[in-house]
Amino acid sequence: MAKRSEIVGMEDLLNMVKKLEKVPQRVVNKAARAGASIARKAAKNNAPEGETGELKKGIIMRKERRVKAGKAVFDIMMDPAKSDIFAKIGKNGQRAYYPASQEYGFMTVDGGFVPGYHFLRNSLQDNATDIEKKVVEVAGKEIDKVMKGG
Hints:
Distance between the termini: 46 Å
Number of domains: 1
Helix content: 40-55%
Shape: elongated
Order of helices and strands: HHHEEHEEHEEHH
Strand content: 5-15%
Structural class: alpha+beta
Radius of gyration: 24 Å
Number of helices: 7
């Protein structure tokens, strides 16, 4: 004779899973923004001062256009509105972009090479675990709010 068993709370669990499938985009946006702000702050702190400090002021965070629901990507980049400040035309007519030369390095007039600071790349690499923790923490809090109906 077969015994019949019942799982207490199974209906609640199924309802919670259905809610979780429909997590609002704002949850993803908020979590991604929190992680990206760590990288932006680190990039600003690590950027070379320069003569006017414009390099630090020019680092911005911009959200990419959403292509896929449930996904959010933020770029840490130089402000395109300040390109006229950063782009320089040399005596030989070549265009030089100051942030790129500071990030990757540049050749000197006598043929030497000055290595770059890699302030943008290092802002992500050095803070990868902190960024991941922050994204998971914020996403968890926001998902809890959704599950509780708030």
